[in-house]
Amino acid sequence: xxxxxxxxxxxxxxxxxxxxxxxxxxxxxxxxxxxxxxxxxxxxxxxxxxxxxxxxxxxxxxxxxxxxxxxxxxxxxxxxxxxxxxxxxxxxxxxxxxxxxxxxxxxxxxxxxxxxxxxxxxxxxxxxxxxxxxxxxxxxxxxxxxxxxxxxxxxxxxxxxxxxxxxxxxxxxxxxxxxxxxxxxxxxxxxxxxxxxxxxxxxxxxxxxxxxxxxxxxxxxxxxxxxxxxxxxxxxxxxxxxxxxxxxxxxxxxxxxxxxxxxxxxx
Length: 267
Known about the structure:
Layout: H1 3-12, H2 15-23, E1 39-44, H3 48-62, E2 66-71, H4 73-81, E3 88-90, H5 94-102, E4 112-117, E5 119-124, H6 138-142, E6 147-150, H7 156-167, H8 171-174, E7 178-181, H9 184-192, E8 198-202, H10 203-207, E9 212-217, E10 226-232, H11 238-248, H12 251-259
Parallel strand pairs: 1-2, 1-3, 6-7, 6-8
Antiparallel strand pairs: 3-10, 4-10, 5-8, 5-9
Helix pairs in contact: 3-12, 4-5
């Protein structure tokens, strides 16, 4: 574990941090103490639209119920560390899965790279002209407005976004104008509502809202690859988790993900 990630985990242990997330309605898990039926899946917020459809298909084909809880990957990882009852974890980056694996909280033999994604710059509304991120003065275009991003030092979409803007030389000027949110779907919502004129999200998030336009795609070389690992959680329902992970890796489920704009890692 890197020193930065270790420091971040310590900060995430703050009760104030978690109370603030709960108050904002971000942690909608609410699973502890409830009867568990079927399979419980903790998944990165950016997978919601596609995973909802894939889980419904799994339920229809198997008769097994799937309970889906979405939030930012660090929030989900922390919940698993605290003993929340999950069977499967799907993270928006390998780092948070690595943390749980090193602590023995996932079954590393079940771990697989499930999906890939692209990072994009979106703007509110339709018909917004494209932007050249190599030459544009992004901070100048924002003016007194804000750029919506997921938490840039914790949530994968924010981490990737900061890395990309840094690589493009935009970050020093843009950083004071960033409005950080608890997860990438919250950043999308800020732009979709017009509260922020622009935001950094995944390509799949942009497809989920007709109220935004993709005005630039970040070069793949400007940030680490956006990879979504999935794994069974240690102490969870082993057989059920294995069945669900196998389904997610099947051609039927992968076609659903592809239709929603995700990519599938090379074999």
